[in-house]
Amino acid sequence: MMLFANTTNLLAAQNSKALEVKEYKLENGLTVWLNEDHSQPKVFGAVVVKAGAKDCPDTGIAHYFEHMMFKGTDKIGTIDYEAEKILLDSISAKYDELAVTEDEEVRTRIQQEINELSIQSSDYVIPNEFNRLISKYGGSGLNAATSYDATIYFNTFSPQYMTQWAEINSERLLNPVFRLFQSELETVYEEKNMYGDFIGGPVMDRLLARYFAPHPYAYPIIGSTKNLKNPRLTEMRKFFEEYYVASNMALVLSGDFDTEAVLPILERTFSRIRPGEAPRKDIVTLPPFKGKEKMKVKFPVPLVKVMGLGFRGVPANHEDQAALAIAVNMLNNANGTGFLDKLMVDRKIMACMAMNESMNEAGILAVAVVPKLMLQTYSGAEKLVWREINRIKEGDFTDEVFNSLKQEQRRQYASSLENIDSRARIMMSLYSQGKSWEDYLQEVTKIDALTKEDIMQVARKYFSENYLCVTKKTGKYPKDNLMKPDFTPVVPKNSEASSEYAKQLEQMPTQTVEPRFIDFEKDVQITKLNPLATLYTTTNPVTDIFSLNLIYQVGTLEQPQLSYLANYLQFLGTDSLSFQDFRTRLQVLGSTMSFEANDKQFVIRITGFDNHFKETVLLAGDFITHVKADDKQIRQVVND
């Protein structure tokens, strides 16, 4: 068995430079967030644009455009842009014509013309050159994502290629070219069809449409079938020109670089992006539900009942956000000690989960309920859920439980700061929500200041008698799949070519960075506990959170029943502590204990605060040596 542990001390965490984020504004108004962290020889780089699906509701343009941002520019991805542009302009005009044409025969003819023009234009295309350049200059994990509120583009890269990364990613934003659109259109069609084939996809579309109407969040991010069949490249270009302006964007870097050395590089490259202000739209206010509004949705699963209770939540930046998060954690939490968790553990209900998510302009607050098979009614299950919600409203919880949940919130905040990747993702999210880094660091202070009365108040306010009650009826919605046009495939001929721009990049100097490797003699302390167990220890230089992993070198390939064991152990206590008592003690310490089985290993993961390391390890050790079987829970696990 191997044991991996990392720890630090609170003073070191508070003074850690890795938690510093410096904000700058370039001459064109673009925001830059720099987080210098030399713990690993890598940099996470991202561009965040405050433009998402809500800014082009139901059209899918934001998502379409995200895909096209990988196709290159007037310099990247082409051997002769001037000749290519003539054909691309013709293709764009044909898509505009297609969008206003309903006659199927005429549409087929236009699509065929688009196909022929696409094949001709591909003679000038260097496919995937942007991706190849990112890889060539030390990049990995290249990706992007579109949400309702923002679009992000990101990847990890090697520090010595900072100049090249900044050059390529700023060039990408100057004049993107919508080449090979036919191929990308087919990709988006496939995404839409895959979502439609997913058993819960059509259900979620209808739920969100009802829940968020008349807000733009009511429309799917990917867009409607009608609009996807009629894309307009001119509208996509307009979207780019309106929203992809410097004041509406941020550059996020976290990792192994020198801030003073990087700033001139960023100013030279990213200040080329067009200045300007993005359109500002009035926020659509969601109307309150009126009493218990009922809705039925079709779900193609017989016998099993499913119910959802939807309440109005809070948007990001709302003053009640921290208190509402604690209230929801009283229903479900990481240690399984919430009031709804207990309903499941006690087998009073099959499944029950509270959800709380905040977008920029609205929030989702809901409880999903699966009543017990056959005998339990919807009304019976709902009464049980309301009884537990009302306990929060009435303050029927101890100070110990309340403080432990505040502790859990603090641990989650601290854990998300521990490494470059997770820290950068927080930075991206914060910028897209209009928050500052300091706002995030102050969240812990807000949590500490919360009182029991605050939790009772938000529970009464948001878990009100005005809500959407959704129940399932067996059935399914007709598929709304998009048929791909019968196009001749577009096969570019210059897959091995390089643009003039790529050749110019090769002339740019590269920084010299010495390779850094883990030195097990210095970086890791190795302790032989006994012939079968070795402890590997390293420090956590950023936060006061420890993690201890107990790794057994046997997995489900050798012992398939370990997958059941991992689930079963989540519901057990010891011979001296009930499940509830054991999990509550963990929670009070701000610690967690979870189990995982994979092909080759069985892992016990323990996390917590450094100042409770000893108590946590003793408690976990007692569980491992004195865990008590429970026949009721094993039946539940096996039945699941």
Major beta sheet summary: 6 strands, mixed
Q: How does the overall form come out from the CA principal axes?
A: globular
Classify the helix fraction into a percent range: 40-55%
Q: What structural class is derived from the secondary structure elements?
A: alpha+beta
Tally of helical runs:
24
Q: Would you tell me the overall average pLDDT?
A: 92
What's the multimeric state?
single chain
Separation of the first and last Cα atoms: 30 Å
What portion of the residues fall into strands of 2 or more residues?
15-25%
Global Rg: 27 Å
Question: What is the number of strand segments?
Answer: 17
Low-pLDDT ranges: 7-15
Q: What spatial order of strands do you see in the largest sheet?
A: 13-14-1-15-17-16
Question: What would you say this structure looks like, in words?
Answer:
The protein is of the alpha+beta class and 640 residues long. The strands form three sheets. It has a six-stranded mixed sheet with strand order 13-14-1-15-17-16. Strand 2 (22-25) and strand 3 form a beta hairpin.
List keywords for this structure.
640 residues, alpha+beta, six-stranded mixed sheet, 18% strand, globular
